[in-house]
Amino acid sequence: MPSRPPKFRLDAWLATIALVAICLISLGNVIVRYATDASFAFTEEFSVFLLVVLTFAGAAVAARHNQHIRIELIEHYLPPWARKVVFVLQWLGGVTVLGIMTWYGSTFALQEYQWESLSPGLGLPNWIYVMWLPLLSVAIIIRMTQNLVDRLRGKEDPEVIHES
């Protein structure tokens, strides 16, 4: 088996860091709760935020490696020219949805910044939490576009295992 150099992908590292942080925060909260009958106030707010970051960063990784859920049966039985049309239609659908999320997420983050609204639990500025929605939506669009280019060129990621 040939060895490949490790790849540094910001989205994969971000997802990993978010998952580790969620685990550490939750474990610390459980230990403190059992030892003192009290819990940390910040754990829920940070855990929800980190879960959103984990979800979007993980979606970017999956988009790059062509591992999102879809119906491949249609792709397998189409001629190459029609398969490319399906690839582009899949990409257009994803970019449309994520483009709308980017637009409204940016608008929401800007409003949260302008209104200086604070989070209910810790009183931190809400825009710090909300700004990740449009940023990571753009990251998914970039990864989807990279994947589309590879698929149109006929490249398959060797890490992808298709079980269909």
Verbal overview:
The protein has 164 residues and is mostly helical. It has one domain (10-152). Helices cover 70% and strands 0% of the residues. The relative contact order is 0.14. The model has no long low-confidence stretch (mean pLDDT 87). Residues 22-153 form the Tripartite ATP-independent periplasmic transporters DctQ component domain. It is found in: Cell inner membrane. The chain crosses the membrane at residues 12-34, 46-64, 85-106, 126-145.
Order of helices and strands: HHHHHH
Helix content: over 70%
Please state the CA-atom Rg, rounded to the nearest Å.
20 Å
Query: Can you tell me the residue ranges where pLDDT is under 50 for at least 5 consecutive residues?
Result: none
Shape: elongated
Strand segment count: 0
Total DSSP helices: 6
Overall residue-averaged pLDDT value = 87
Strand content: under 5%
How many independent structural domains?
A: 1
In whole angstroms, the N-to-C terminal distance is 24 Å
Main beta-sheet annotation:
none
Helix/strand-derived category reads mainly alpha
Organism: Marinobacter algicola DG893
GO molecular function: transmembrane transporter activity
Main location: membrane
Keywords: Cell inner membrane, Cell membrane, Membrane, Transmembrane, Transmembrane helix, Transport
